[in-house]
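Service request form, structural biology core

Requester: graduate student, group of Dr. S.
Request type: structure prediction, single chain
Budget code: on file
Notes: please return the result as structure tokens.

Sequence provided:
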Amino acid sequence: MAISFASILESHINRYPLMEVRDIYKLVYQAAFGSSHFICNLSDAKKRLEEEIETMGKGPDEPVYDPVSPDGDIIRIHLRPYIINKGDKNLLLKGFIKTGENCRGDKCRLLIYWNNVLEMTENQSLPFTSQEVMEFMRDMEKQNYPAVSHSRPYRSEYSPAYRIVCRRYLPPFQVL
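Core staff response, request fulfilled:
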């Protein structure tokens, strides 16, 4: 199920028009590295998932999952529709942990995806200037390309609640 990274970006910008460059970078980072930056033990991950489900409140209309990587292997499971559709929290948790342990990604992939972002800004397909995008990436490069949190406007407006999972670590019926 290969799709272009540009299509993934357009889909997210259309659904989340308040995305900032930081949020685009987070999506790129997730596409390149999965959830490897979020490795934790099963009991901590379970506690965080339970707390997030309890406190996530309402959010935007979202599908159960979004492809994040062009090959469709890395997906974002949105918790609200996942829970409403009776998705199994334990299977999601196991898939999340396996993803963190086994999907390592690399900086080269991140830079390839980021070039797509830059091309789209140059074509005015994204609501950012090339200068904004390049400055942000220079800052990330200085920090050795860290994982980042969503921007404050994104968190405030969309209340993101999801898990990044490699599709292969969820049974097909769990991807709904």
